[in-house]
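Thread title: Can someone regenerate the structure for this chain?

I was given the following input by a collaborator and told the matching structure tokens would be attached. They weren't. Posting the sequence so someone can regenerate them.
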Amino acid sequence: MNMRKSAGFTLMEILVVISILGFLFGFLIPTVMKQMGRADDKKIELKMNSLKQALVDYKMDIGNYPSTKDGLKALLENPRPNDPRYSAQKNKWPYVSNSSDIEDNNGNEFIYHCPPEKFKGQYKSFEIIWEEGDEVKYHTGA
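Best answer:
Regenerated them for you:
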């Protein structure tokens, strides 16, 4: 009997390993992508809760929340520099570090209403809404 030493893998062994790996990746990739999407959603929620706190700080200093017209940009720069009530607090700005703090991951500014329009029964003072398409993904307010 002639015994031959094997120096490598057979084609069948390689195909079995590749099919097992393909099967595993077929289950793992969707799960990993779903978790990455959840992480993005959590990041947005944290951002919106930080905005909520910045709005509360703004109210503590100025006496009221920014109007819907002033929007969240009022947290970046003084919306009324000639108003004595606002100019007295000139060293307080910005309440958020940069413009990306008032935007979602796609660069869209969060929707802000003061007084609330969409969630009137849930919030009394203001609402911040994050929408994707026609769907409200997350909202917060006071």
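Strands lie at 111-113, 127-132, 135-141.
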